[in-house]
Amino acid sequence: MGAKLQAPRVPLRNSRTPQQNGRSGLVVQAGIDYGLGLKGNTVVQKTFKSGRAKVPLELETASEPPLNTYKNKAPFVGKILSVERIVGPEATGETCHIIIKHDGQMPFWEGQSYGVVPPGSKINSKGKEVPHGVRLYSIASSRYGDDFDGKTTTLCVRRATYWDPEMGKEDPAKKGICSNFLCDAKPGVDVQLTGPTGTVMLLPEDPNLCHIMVATGTGIAPFRSYIRRFFVEQVPNYDFKGLAWLFMGVANSDAKLYDDEFSELLKRFPDQFRLDYALSREQKNTEGGKMYIQDKMKEYKDQIFDLLDNGSHIYFCGLKGMMPGIQEMLEGVCKSKGIDFEHWLENLKEKKQWHVEVY
Predict the structure, then answer these.
(1) Which of 13-17, 88-92, 119-123, 242-246 has the lowest mean pLDDT?
(2) Cα separations (Å) of 305 from 11, 271, 279, 313, 340?
(3) How far apart are the C-alpha atoms of 191 and 132, rounded to whole Å?
(4) 25: nearest Cα among 39, 14, 35, 36
(5) Where do the domains of the chain lie, and which CATH numbers do they carry?
(6) Which active-site residues does the annotation give?
(7) Are residues 118 and 184 in contact, defined by beta-carbon separation less than 8 angstroms?
(8) 3-state secondary structure string, 31-44?
(9) Parallel, antiparallel, or unpaired for β 243-250 and 76-85?
């Protein structure tokens, strides 16, 4: 355990600045000091300066993660602070960065999720009017929130819509109830929250490990929370000395999420942070087809195998369709080395190095 293998960092490909992406905020907080010398207009306009953010270290004292502090029948009522579109005009769909205030009453750990109960009701299968069900969202901030005070949380939400080919337009009757509520929310709106939930994606305690993070779309959320804990905040009891390697799969450059933050951290931590994009509509794989995340990982298959074989942790969050291709790639490496893949994978799972949260 505690692998220190570090392959040379590969420069970012198809990198574009936020200005080139043409992103714009919808609703943002005004007059907020984000710490670290950040200029707090919008997420994409923040610039990291020297040093790390000071945070309330009492959030480090709990020995166990909080679980199901608030349940469906008695949710916590938080308040929307800001909603911001964080993709460019050519992105496939709209994704928003949403900050919610909980005043420290709903603490969580990195890798956990919140449930959101959208307002309104529905008619169930028995013809009875009932409240809408809970929707789970991975949390996209560290336990300290974007304001570093431990009183907010951040969600990364893609607006769910349905294009009806017969109508030739979006069918509002089939849009995602919760995602549209969140993406349309204004500052001051109440939001019912449950949780936090989940232990599968929690970080191990050892700050010297290597972490390989594999995300598609809004599956980036837990990895942003990790990366902020690794590199952004001043947490003496978690002084990260390992390697964080992020693989991110989206359609095109305008669909990159938090690229401005990650690009800055690449400059600040070139020996500890790696970032590889798979842009399916802009890049080609080695066979000339579209570049999906499993194709990008295949370029580094031997490095990934060696890191995992030496105690690194790997995390998957996003669309479950990525999993067969990735497992096939790792199986091929095992076969070339005369290793039984099923036994090797089971060993990773037994050692809790394999973390999966896909849908």
Answers:
(1) 13-17
(2) 21, 20, 23, 11, 13
(3) 13
(4) 39
(5) 19-197 (2.40.30.10), 210-358 (3.40.50.80)
(6) 137-138, 317, 357, 359
(7) no
(8) CCCCCCCCCCCCHH
(9) unpaired
Express each pLDDT in 253-277 by its tens digit.
Answer: 999 999 989 998 999 999 999 999 9
pLDDT tens sequence across 133-169: 999 999 999 999 998 999 999 999 999 877 667 767 6
Mean pLDDT on 112-133: 92
Residue 180, classed as helix, strand or coil, is helix
Do residues 194 and 75 lie in contact, with contact meaning Cβ atoms separated by under 8 Å? yes
Within the chain, residue ranges assigned H as helices are: 18-21, 177-184, 221-231, 259-268, 293-298, 301-309, 322-336, 341-350
Q: Which residues of 347-358 are buried (b: 16+ CB within 10 A; e: fewer)?
A: ebeeeebbbebe
- Mean pLDDT over the full length of the chain: 86
Token pair of 171, please?
């069918």
Give residues with Cβ within 8 angstroms of 333, minimum separation 6: 301, 302, 305
